[in-house]
Amino acid sequence: MMTIVNIIAGLVLLLFGGEAMVRGAVSLGRWLGLSTLVVGILIVGVATSMPEMVVSVEAVLFHHPEIAVGNILGSNTANILLVLGLTALVRPMHHQPRALLPDGLLLMATALVFFLLGLYGHINRFFGLLMLAGLAAYMTWEFVRTRRETRLLAALEEDIAEEASVPAWMEHPLIALVAVFIGLGLLVYGGDLFLRGASQVADYFGVSKGVIGLTLVALGTSSPELASSLVAARHGHSDVAYGNVVGSNIINILGVGGAAAGIAGLPVPQVMARLDAGMVLLATILMILFFHSSKGLTRNRALLLVALYGAYMGVRSLIVG
Known about the structure:
Layout: H1 2-31, H2 36-46, H3 50-61, H4 65-90, H5 103-119, E1 122-123, H6 125-148, H7 150-163, H8 173-205, H9 209-221, H10 223-234, H11 238-264, E2 266-267, H12 270-292, H13 299-316
Antiparallel strand pairs: 1-2
Helix pairs in contact: 1-2, 1-8, 2-7, 3-4, 3-8, 3-11, 4-9, 4-10, 4-11, 4-12, 4-13, 5-11, 5-12, 6-11, 8-9, 10-11
């Protein structure tokens, strides 16, 4: 019973902590005079990956690196197959001109880098820091590129207005700063509870912590991506929903993976390096092919993605490691 309480309480604190941190950051950004674009990239990109970041870093600190690896790979797989699949079942998503160049190839490159590094069985601190540097370069490039795309910027601004409204009482910079710190505290404590509960579930059912990372932890930390993508698609902004998943997956690998490896190195079990990282590559290829085609992500294709995710989870639960 306590394990279930820890998992639910941890997930709730992760979500509320992320929400408080985002609202506070938005308020501070506006007070500092930052553009809507900067605030938007913070929300759509970085903020939705905060649960993954906190849980994975804490997993490494508490000597459960397999949960961190499972969380990264499981979240990326879920973002493509489950989040985009369910979103397109609600409302089909149209063709994306950037599905191949540059977004698709960049996402493929990050997935391939993690796959190749994982084959060595260990991502050392040097590569972790290099991945973080790559994330900084990506965010800078994303800012410059989006600034030039007025249509995407207009859609992003509308999405921000819908999802990142700040209450009047939080507009004061001191209150906003307090909200950021409270949100960060909730994220850390919630991550601790969630990680503790997930570890206890693995011990109770006798499954590996890597499998728990791929399933329970990944699904829990991917819920912000699902919520924001559903809202964006509902308003007809499939480009924002697509960009949200692409950005989050790149940040998961370069940011979350880089931070986890940069602390003390990140051991990668071979079954996860080959099977689960390989599944991320396959899901990425399917996403690129679907969005690059003229039909986009239709309901039939979305159903295929969701079914593939279900089949993958079923097979993965039978494999130890």
